[in-house]
């Protein structure tokens, strides 16, 4: 009967929720925690072949910068590099998620001095969870004064000025029509067509 299937369906999500709250990381076997999600986002950043399971040193230091783990006082870029070299295997250039957590544990003692290991580690996780590689630099440059100055059509001069109307909207081909001037005169030459009159007048 349809009633029983409905009941089964609604019972399933409830089960998952309860197992979530019991597990420390908030992740069951099939789901990834916010921490692991952040790890994966940074792990694949800038590398098209990356699977998200291992992280390179470059992306590790980017993660530490973007998530404010490097504060310039307790934790510096050097600390981050040292921990990375210490945790990864000798012949490999990447760390796994498990090693990543070890590295965080190492750094958390420095970053949150005076807190218990457990507390410091939780604070570290908070800095990282839900984050992804920052692309902030990309959007900021568009708003820079230089770019807005270059794209302000009201300040354009010469023939470029003719290509935009008062509101700054491009006129398209109409604004460039004078380029298709077949008279043989340089565009913008004021006395076009006067030569013939002179010659004929002298005859």
Automatic annotation (TrEMBL):
<dbReference type="InterPro" id="IPR011992">
    <property type="entry name" value="EF-hand-dom_pair"/>
</dbReference>
<feature type="region of interest" description="Disordered">
    <location>
        <begin position="151"/>
        <end position="183"/>
    </location>
</feature>
<dbReference type="GO" id="GO:0001578">
    <property type="term" value="P:microtubule bundle formation"/>
</dbReference>
<dbReference type="GO" id="GO:0005874">
    <property type="term" value="C:microtubule"/>
</dbReference>
<keyword id="KW-0963">Cytoplasm</keyword>
<comment type="similarity">
    <text>Belongs to the TPPP family.</text>
</comment>
<dbReference type="InterPro" id="IPR008907">
    <property type="entry name" value="TPP/p25"/>
</dbReference>
<dbReference type="GO" id="GO:0015631">
    <property type="term" value="F:tubulin binding"/>
</dbReference>
<dbReference type="Pfam" id="PF05517">
    <property type="entry name" value="p25-alpha"/>
</dbReference>
<protein>
    <submittedName>
        <fullName>TPPP protein</fullName>
    </submittedName>
</protein>
<feature type="region of interest" description="Disordered">
    <location>
        <begin position="1"/>
        <end position="30"/>
    </location>
</feature>
<dbReference type="GO" id="GO:0046785">
    <property type="term" value="P:microtubule polymerization"/>
</dbReference>
<feature type="compositionally biased region" description="Basic and acidic residues">
    <location>
        <begin position="159"/>
        <end position="179"/>
    </location>
</feature>
<dbReference type="GO" id="GO:0005737">
    <property type="term" value="C:cytoplasm"/>
</dbReference>
<dbReference type="GO" id="GO:0032273">
    <property type="term" value="P:positive regulation of protein polymerization"/>
</dbReference>
